[in-house]
Design a protein that fits this description.
Number of helices: 5
Number of domains: 1
Helix content: 55-70%
CATH superfamily: Cytochrome c oxidase, subunit III, four-helix bundle
Number of strands: 0
CATH class: Mainly Alpha
Largest sheet: none
Amino acid sequence: MTELAQPGADYSIVETEEPEVLSRNLFAAGQLLAGATAFFFLSFLFAYFYLRSLNNAGLWKPKHVDASVTWGTIVMACIVASAMLLRFGRIDHAAGRREAFRLKALVALLLGLAALVLQVLAWHEASFGPTDGGFASVYFGWTAFLFLFVFCTLFWLETVLATSWRYRNDPMGAAVVAPGHASGDPSRTAHDIRNPVELNRASLGALSFYWTFLAGIAVLTWIVLYLI
């Protein structure tokens, strides 16, 4: 095994892996990430109903603590619209309509960013703080972490969109990607996999699945924090 780490080693023995292998791994990773996210937000769901049932000293939700349904609805709608638009973009990508995909992905990215900006405005306009009772604590904690998860997912979306744009002149990618590009090892004389850019399709599939799942979390957040 040490010969693989030596300068000038014959890297051909570990190169040209079929992209389908890592594609399956990427999609499985997206499913695992969705599972971990579900358990993470389950803690806020439990805190909401537990603290609400206790209502110690009647301070679960004082009269002045009232989250704006309007702000919450707009934020949720932007996230859901972004996720649905990306799913339609994925269909375009699979059909070879890359320009249509890039347009939908760009709009999805802008909608997601709009949701983040609107959430900040909702916090600013709130008439209460995180220390004003149990509901206020759950509200700010839940929405803050949802903000973080959405931000990270949008960064993922940006990388997929940027990759698609970078190799827009060669849909297959094989002719324009330098050897070692996928591995980050300039010493390699060929790619790790047969077509590294093709993994963008798998990354998009995992992203679309996870973004839709996170949109579902946003809908649950809206129902619990603003409607119940």
